[in-house]
From TrEMBL:
Domain spans labelled Alcohol dehydrogenase-like C-terminal: 70-151
The species this protein was found in: Shinella fusca
Listed name of the protein: NADPH:quinone reductase-like Zn-dependent oxidoreductase
Gene3D superfamilies named among the record's database cross-references: NAD(P)-binding Rossmann-like Domain (3.40.50.720)
Signal peptide: none
InterPro entries, sorted: ADH-like_C, NAD(P)-bd_dom_sf, Zn-ADH-like_protein
Pfam family, one: ADH_zinc_N
GO molecular function: oxidoreductase activity
Residues spanning the membrane: none
Amino acid sequence: MKAAIVSATGRPPALGELAAPVASAGERLIRVDIAAIANPGMSSWIALTERPRLKPGETVLVNGATGTSGRLAVQITRLLGAGRIIATGRNAKALGEARSLGADTTIQLGEDAEWLEHRFMQELAQGIDIVIDYLWGPGAGRLLIAAAKAGRDAVPMRFVQVGSVSASDITLPGSVLRASAIELMSSGHGSVPVPRLIEITGEVLRAAVPNNLAIAFKPMPFADFDRAWPLDDSTCRTVFAMNAGRT
């Protein structure tokens, strides 16, 4: 989801009954902050805590850390106690921002498959405990193949599939899974009960102000939806305000 909507009352319609934890979570958060951060923050928090159950000091690779969700995931990964964070993405400038937000090292994704596999294997040789994958597609396939070649024997790498920005499918030889201790899992609304989703959203919002969690967003009046939607991209979330007039 690349945009959010906030109503005149301050309750983002998509959050429904989340109004109570939102109200108590951070009085210093303004309405557009809540709408911008709630969904991607919940997504990465779940992907780290509910599915692979991140342990303090573990190494996490955020695959696709240059979008708004990925950059927020880097911050949340650091907040939740990761010892080392690797960020990947195509946009060199956004990768630099990911480093400033907490990533220890970065890998720029590109067309050179051989070089990319080499960089993955370098990091895997040091040990990667968890992958949070926002991309899927060929890059995720290369990472999994590299993990089978260079990963630590019998030490599971937990690969959490969160998004499919790059592609909706991958081609993965069965031998990759047979030859490694990779654990594939997903993270989404169907993997965690709704009451827990609500609790986690409250946790994210309570953590946002004291830990300076940052997300790039631009507020727009809902009247400008048709004009603004095609201009939206993954580097900045758009928050549409229902009660605002046309710009």
